[in-house]
Specification:
195 residues; mainly alpha; elongated; disordered N terminus
């Protein structure tokens, strides 16, 4: 995926209008009241909330380190398992979506096929962001035994990569929910074959 595609994800203000017809029929503020908000729809929203929470946790953690509220050894012990959990689960979640759910959903509603292609392209862009994030995190962790200047510089580089990844992820998760949750609400888990 090119830098141009990456910036498109960061610049996108939501799904194109022609893909929002179900989102308009089933507005986000009414999702929790709908009879079909169970099963896969609830699981989907919970998983996305987990990614948002983990992203926020990592952002706050690097901030605590940069502001001196965590020592380098304490930060390293805290940071590594949470980052690995976040990156690993996000990558696994996207693989399941790309290879199972998106094809099922696109087949169920051909008018949304382009939306699933957009989400699939997002996954490639986000995967590159995951790789950059992991590289910046590893480089930062290696500096924790070095000078404070090197640590601070590496922490800044990681914080920038993390902010970029979180921004891409926020846009993607919102768009994915706006495409998928209304489809599930409209058709139901069983009719889509994902119960």
């Amino acid at each position: 995926m090119s830098e141009a595609t990456n910036s498109l994800l960061l610049e996108r203000g939501g799904l194109p209008e022609d893909l929002r017809w179900l989102a308009e029929k089933y507005p986000r503020e009414n999702w929790q009241k709908h009879a079909n908000i169970h099963g896969i729809a609830t699981m989907w929203l919970q998983r996305h909330d987990m990614f948002r929470e983990l992203g926020s946790l990592l952002t706050n953690g690097i901030g605590d380190y940069r502001e001196g509220r965590l020592t380098a050894p304490d930060f390293a012990r805290w940071f590594a398992p949470r980052l690995n959990h976040f990156l690993g689960h996000l990558d696994g979640h996207h693989n399941v979506e790309d290879h199972h759910y998106f094809p099922v959903f696109a087949k169920a509603e051909a008018r949304l096929k382009r939306g699933f292609e957009i989400l699939d392209a997002d996954h490639h862009t986000i995967h590159e962001g995951l790789e950059r994030n992991a590289e910046a995190a590893n480089a930062f962790m290696k500096t924790l035994q070095e000078s404070e200047d090197r640590q601070r510089f590496a922490a800044d580089v990681y914080a920038d990569e993390n902010s970029r990844l979180i921004a891409m992820l926020a846009r993607h998760l919102a768009d994915e929910e706006d495409l998928i949750i209304p489809l599930i609400l409209d058709r139901g888990d069983r009719a889509l074959g994902v119960d």
